[in-house]
């Protein structure tokens, strides 16, 4: 049953902060497109994060766009959330291309999870999707190794779409050993990627697949430990998203909330529809903090080969 977030669930337990829409890739199905280059300054970001923590936030996920386009600001927020706010889990979602070992060396102690998007292990497919550079797969393996070296849990995100639905990724995923592999069915989001006439920056219609095709992909990879399938019915309204203006987004088509620095977290949440059951069903609550003293976030001590 859907519910207004804040009506029954009083706290924003897990927040996805998309603090920038800028990106260095051009994925054809992107659901959070570069409609603006706005980014808040660090003091305002910290103030907003503090408000969220006081309201009960336990996990923060920094996303974009591409968050590593702003490594200093990103690192400062990661450190602040773990050291000052003492959040249970601090994570980042990235396309991986701008991740450096020096960032993980400097901030890894305060970062629980690094999730890297990888939609194919075929560079030609990555290029067709808009994510390719010719070095996507090799960089993914480097990032996974850096995570292991610096105690950050490595997570893999894959958008299952028309171009990769038939791919067998088992060998690579087994070699990378992510603690969690999220497989998303490509999703149409109103105002972001849903207009074939060109009113939106992206047109994801040509990438869509049937539920049966998505289930077939998941079944092919069912043996992978940590596989978490996420079909459209679970994705659409189950994420609590804070945008670059510090507003909660509403995926039912209504206007975003007022900025939380202006009206506070509780009032902003009152205007956001959130599917509580879908949040729970998709595994929104899980073991999201790395164990104390963990030094091999990717699991094991073996080298990665591909």
Can you walk me through this structure?
With about 300 residues, the protein is of the alpha/beta class. It has a domain at about 10-155 and about 235-280: TIM Barrel (Alpha-Beta Barrel). The protein has eleven helices and ten strands. The strands form two sheets. An eight-stranded parallel sheet has the order 8-7-6-5-4-3-2-9. Strand 4 (about 90-95), helix 3 and strand 5 form a beta-alpha-beta unit. Helix 1 (about 40-55) packs parallel to helix 2. The longest helix has 14 residues, at about 70-85. The chain starts with a strand and ends in a 25-residue tail after the last helix. Its cofactor is [4Fe-4S] cluster. This is Radical SAM enzyme.
Architecture blueprint of SSEs:
Elements: E1 3-4, E2 14-18, H1 42-54, E3 59-63, H2 71-84, E4 89-94, H3 101-107, E5 113-117, H4 123-129, H5 136-149, E6 153-160, H6 170-176, E7 180-185, H7 211-220, E8 227-230, H8 232-235, E9 241-242, H9 260-263, H10 265-270, E10 273-274, H11 276-281
Parallel strand pairs: 2-3, 2-9, 3-4, 4-5, 5-6, 6-7, 7-8
Antiparallel strand pairs: 1-10
Helix pairs in contact: 1-2
In terms of per-residue confidence, which ranges show pLDDT below 50 for 5 or more consecutive residues? 1-9, 295-306
> What general form does the structure show?
globular
Instruction: Give the termini distance in whole angstroms.
Output: 44 Å
Judged by helices, strands and strand pairing, the structural class is alpha/beta
Known CATH architecture of the domain at 12-156 and 237-281? Alpha-Beta Barrel
Level-1 CATH class name of the domain at 12-156 and 237-281 = Alpha Beta
Number of distinct beta strands: 10
Estimated helix fraction: 25-40%
CATH H level, superfamily name of the domain at 12-156 and 237-281: Aldolase class I
CATH topology of the domain at 12-156 and 237-281, by name, is TIM Barrel
**Mean pLDDT reading:** 84
Q: How many H/I helical runs?
A: 11
Strand order of the largest sheet: 8-7-6-5-4-3-2-9
Largest sheet: 8 strands, parallel
Order of helices and strands: EEHEHEHEHHEHEHEHEHHEH
Question: What Rg, in angstroms, do the CA atoms define?
Answer: 18 Å
Fraction of residues in β-strands:
5-15%
Keywords: 4Fe-4S, Antiviral defense, Iron, Iron-sulfur, Metal-binding, Mitochondrion, S-adenosyl-L-methionine
Cofactor: [4Fe-4S] cluster
GO molecular function, one term: 4 iron, 4 sulfur cluster binding
Protein name: Radical SAM enzyme
């Amino acid at each position: 049953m859907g519910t207004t977030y804040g009506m029954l669930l009083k706290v924003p337990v897990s927040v996805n902060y998309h603090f920038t829409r800028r990106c260095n890739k051009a994925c054809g199905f992107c659901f959070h497109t570069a409609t603006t280059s706005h980014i808040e300054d660090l003091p305002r970001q910290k103030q907003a994060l503090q408000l969220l923590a006081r309201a009960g936030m336990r996990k923060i996920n920094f996303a974009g766009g591409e968050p590593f386009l702003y490594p200093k600001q990103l690192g400062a927020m990661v450190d602040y959330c773990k050291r000052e706010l003492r959040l249970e889990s601090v994570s980042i979602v990235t396309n991986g291309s701008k991740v450096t070992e020096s960032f993980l060396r400097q901030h890894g102690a305060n970062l629980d999870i690094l999730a890297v998007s990888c939609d194919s292990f075929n560079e030609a497919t990555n290029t067709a999707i808009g994510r390719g550079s010719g070095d996507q797969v090799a960089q993914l393996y480097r990032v996974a190794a850096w995570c292991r070296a610096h105690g950050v849990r490595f997570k893999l995100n894959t958008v299952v779409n028309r171009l990769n639905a038939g791919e067998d990724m088992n060998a690579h995923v087994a070699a990378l050993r992510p603690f969690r592999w999220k497989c998303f069915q490509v999703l149409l989001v109103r105002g972001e990627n849903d207009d074939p006439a060109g009113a939106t920056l992206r047109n994801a219609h040509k990438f869509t697949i049937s539920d049966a095709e998505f289930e077939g992909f998941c079944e092919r990879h069912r043996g992978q430990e940590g596989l978490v399938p996420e079909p459209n019915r679970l994705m659409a309204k189950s994420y609590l998203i804070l945008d670059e203006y510090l507003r909660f987004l509403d995926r039912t088509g209504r206007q975003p909330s007022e900025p939380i620095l202006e009206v506070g977290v509780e009032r902003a949440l009152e205007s956001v529809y959130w599917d509580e059951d879908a949040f729970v069903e998709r595994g929104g609550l899980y073991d999201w903090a790395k164990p104390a003293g963990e030094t091999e976030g990717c699991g094991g001590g073996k080298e990665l080969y591909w």
